[in-house]
Amino acid sequence: MPKKGKKDQEGSTDTPKTTRRDVLKMGVVAGGVTLLTAKKSFRTHDVYAQTASGGTFVPPEPVPCSIDDFVSSPPTRPFRQQLPIPSLLQPTTLNPAPQRTANTNAGEAPRAAHQRWNEFLPVKQYALHARPALWRFHPDLPKSYVWAFNGEIQAPTLINNYGNPVVVRFFNDLPTNHSLGFGIPEMTIHLHNGHTASESDGFAGDFYGPGLWKDNHYPNIYAGFDTFTSTKGDPREAQYSYWYHDHRAMFTAANTYLGLAGMYLLFDKKDSGNENDTTPGALRLPSGYGVFDVPLEFSDKLICPDGTLLADPSGFVFQGDKWCVNGAIQPFMPVKRRKYRFRLLNTGPERTRVHQLTNGYNFKVIATDGNLLQNPITVSQITHSVAERYDVIIDFSRARIGDKVYLLDLNPDDDPQFVGFPSPTPLPPGVAIEQVNMRFDVVGDATDNSQVPNTLTQYPSTNEHIAAVKTWEFTRNDNAPAGLNFQINGLTFDANRSDHQVCRGTAEIWKLRNLVPASDWTHPVHIHFEEARILERNGAPPPPLETGRKDVFRLPPGNELVLFLRFREFLGRYLIHCHNMNHEDAFMMTRWDIVDNVAKKDQFKKEVVG
Question: Which of 18, 371, 393, 430 supports an S-S bond with 364, CB 3.0-4.6 Å?
Fold first, then answer.
């Protein structure tokens, strides 16, 4: 029988409780706010319903397989497929053209007007369609029914430059007659962690149903735009590795598990994406998307013998016993004897990964959560929580042609994957095939003009007036309805309740505390919109990998983090939540607002929230 993860089974009693499944059926959440009522749908995209009309084939939903009969996913032979590379999304011309206000007459979902639209007019437009598709996770398995952007389980990657605003139109082409037993055909897309106005941030309550679309406006500016006017923001605030995913309240885990996630990359003069760039100040990191600059998106699945994905009908998503990289189970990647940049992303839903390489190889970490470190840091292991990004350099130049290097996951606290076959090639001593995520095959030589400078960036100062100190306490209340017992400051999420207001243009200290027992969960805490610096972990300076700017913060039981944040450029509703997606779906999430003046917060709420 599959598990939700070891700690999800703790705290159970024999006393009957209202379950999360009951709450889902009632369609209500804490505070009396209804979130599950489907928004009005306009069937504007029936072109996808049949191939005869020139549209894309839409597979029917499979019959859900029974969790009661499930033991494990089918066995799969390791290293039978090459690592897939998510495609690059190309710009398009949207019709109707994007505009500042919601074009509800043409099928756009309601939203607030885009902030600073005329100041950051989009120079490129993109379209992403969330729709059903069939995807084969492994050659030994049948195709699986998934939800995917443009039909790709690892959605297309968007690449742009700072200073080039864009609009991405997210179409909801998901089925109205949904019967899988988990997930919901409503969505709100979050660009994690874009410096983006709130109406385009993917607020968990701003979801919309099938047949609708929404334009998200991404200005692609450095934070500090209003202060560092000569450079149009503070270049030290640059982020380079983002990802986008569904953020629908109560269904983030399931909808992302089904496939609604992808990467979004930005470049600038420093990190230009060109290892041959001779411009002064260019870092010349390994470059060439999918060649020497490669995304590695980690996930795990439970797969029934007929290919159907499985999740808990109570609404939780299990840890999968099949580990995927870019939507492939235990793939291999041919590499040359040179340096590579890998962008590691943990898409969840809940597993923390502990990466390690074999053959004595190390990771040279250059960025955390997309933010360059001041200096590269060489490590043998990386603890990788859900939603964190690590940009790493792996140098294969000392390898011999024919060498095989394995990327492992050594987390001792989570369930192992099920393989069912031995490795077709000898593994290093002490390595089990169940620990292997993927294999790098050294196949030849290649020119390498890339560099990894000893100094990558300088950090912005944290010596600034502090307007307020805010404490967020992460707790577990086992007297709450089952599946809704994860809380922040004693409360569960209510989309209409603002639990903190900050003034635009100010800085604050935020303290994160995990008050659960020592045997309980580590929470990967995510703060939307702004990056933070860790000033202290448990009263001491942070360890080296936590010295840079971040937006996901590992918070083990009993830990306290002290963070420094600024709030700039935009107003609106944002979120702080645990990014273990089962926990955020259990409403370990709260809303905070950026306002011009705290005294005006009620007026702001009325105008922006409606």
Answer: 393
